[in-house]
Amino acid sequence: MANWKAFAKAGHLPTLIASFLYFDFCFAIWVLNGAMAPFISEAFNLSPAQKGFMISIPIMAGALMRFPLGVMAQYIGRKNAALVEMGCILVAMLYGYYAVSTYGDVLAMGVLLGIAGASFGVALSLGSGWFPAQYKGLAMGIAGAGNSGTVLAVLFAPPLAMKYGWQAVYGFAALTMLMPFLIMLIFAKEPPDREHHSLKELVSCLVEKDGWMFNAIYIITFGGFIGLANFLPTFFHDQFGVTKVQAGQLTMLAAVMGSAIRIVGGWISDKWGGINSLTLVFIGVIVLMLLLSGAPSLTVTTGLFMVCFAFLGMGNGSLFQLVPLRWPTTTAVAGSMIGEIGALGGAFIPNAMGLSKQYTGSFASGFIAFMVLAAVVFIVMRIAQRRWTQTWVGKGGKALAEAKTVY
User: What pTM value is reported for the model?
Assistant: First the structure.
């Protein structure tokens, strides 16, 4: 309790809560098509490959929009950028409610859903900007736990789609954006850690080795989370024949683990070190992908996915404990860049699973492909961390007494 009080006093808690809600509701909207995929697939009689592609569109669109939003936030402020984004989302949801009626419209709507996926870097930087280095991991974890929006989407979208039609869910989503918009407008304050940089300085992280190493790690941790969270309703429905609503409920069990453990991942990384916790995460994910490829029963599969999402959530929190230590003055841009590439990696799983099912009759090859990718990234990370602990971060990934900026 004493530690929590010290944490709360160290920063601006209302801004952190506003950032969490902003990210939470944006995340829910980002994954709407994945949550409603069984309904959309049935409406247009989609093949497995078409399902995977349709689910991957919002992921890729959101990824591509993250970095531009992060750059904009450096110029107009993170709070203002968040408000502009939420206004655009509201308009996009109204378009979905009134205009989407064909498969082509669904793909176009997937691009618009990507606007919501762009919120990541701004939300985490806004939420953690008031907190000192020793609390960055926990603050990032709390703001990042907004990926619990997946739970909202898979829990509420299928029943609403069943009762009112899947197009109507976009209309309900438009209404939900009013709450985080007003809370952000009234209670959030722009953090004091904003510095002015040239565009060249802002995009410099795109060509740094560490930036691309972080990208690769995030492809596994967040790419795995968002890719699986979007595809699991389709996986449970097609693999085990459960109803569309049950598929959403089973996905919720897994997604809630990843969202809750993200906070724990940030806290553990502050105490234990982000590198150490990421090592545990990668070992767990590699083993679990291998076990899932064996097509166990529904009960065992659900349990394995819950553990897998817990590891992925912990990995997300761990990585973003390291980001503000490596880029202390351009956290929003660096976070958006890493989030962009990581989210692009999330498109790998739906497409790999769809192609695996269509051409082999099983999802096993999709799991194996992701396992191999995770193993390669893990090996490269263990090599890279030797230099990290000699330059900008302490042993195991703990914050140094005095933050260093690496050029």
Answer: 0.86
